[in-house]
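Standup notes
- DV: blocked on the single-chain target, sequence here:
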Amino acid sequence: MSFSEPRSAAGLTALQRIIERPGETLVGVDFDGTLAPIVDNPENAYADEAAITALGRIGNLVGAVVVITGRPARTAVRLGRFQQTPGLERMVVLGQYGVERWNAATDDYQIPPEPEAITSVLEEMPAILDDLGLRQARIEHKGRAVGVHTRELGDAGVAFSRLEAPMEDLAARHGLLVEPGKNVLEIRAPGFDKGEALRSIVEETGCRGIVFAGDDLGDLPAFRMVEQLRTEGYAGLLICSASHEEDALADLSDVVVEGAPGVGAWLSELADRIEAGKAG
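- DV (later): unblocked, structure below
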């Protein structure tokens, strides 16, 4: 494939810096919809093999690789097969929007306790779904969050719309937030988002170049953070993993690719560019 060049001046500048100084670059990626395809059952959302292989190539070339996801860290590590992928021996996974952490170098998990409010939401949610005639919606317990998936219902879009107000009300009653995704509404604890998680890991690693790839509204805070970091002198490059279901990030992105395979192909091409720059 031909390499997709960034379409903004800031993106072009960032790409050049990344190629010239890969050791000062952090590559951050979302999981669902970015490394892994969206599937009916989220427990089967294994990472795209080519995308993970490409991420491993990048891991051997850049300063840091981090996955920032709404998934629990343990789930992302299992579905990502990160422990089996060469090149990811130093990576970090920030789960639950940055609340949880896994370090590949030590295989160490940092998992805080689940909020009591999440238990209450889990107890109340089945009755709410029954009242709406949506008892077939899939409930996913994520530890510090609860997701309701409409993908497997007959009209996923209509079901999603009917759920929005009741889920907002349920979350508000328990001091929680609602995070929309692709045919999923997630109720989660406040206090963290992907933007804050990204800034934290950027500051921790000392990297001055940033690539971040995401696919839906849950990644918007990370995109906004890259825009903010650009104003502070960092080089930032934004990649949108687009699909027919969601393209909310496309207008904010420097590069738009098609789903997890497109992310993998682009990262592989970036690795080729970096290696060619070193050889030159």
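- Follow-up: DSSP finds eight helices and twelve strands in the chain.
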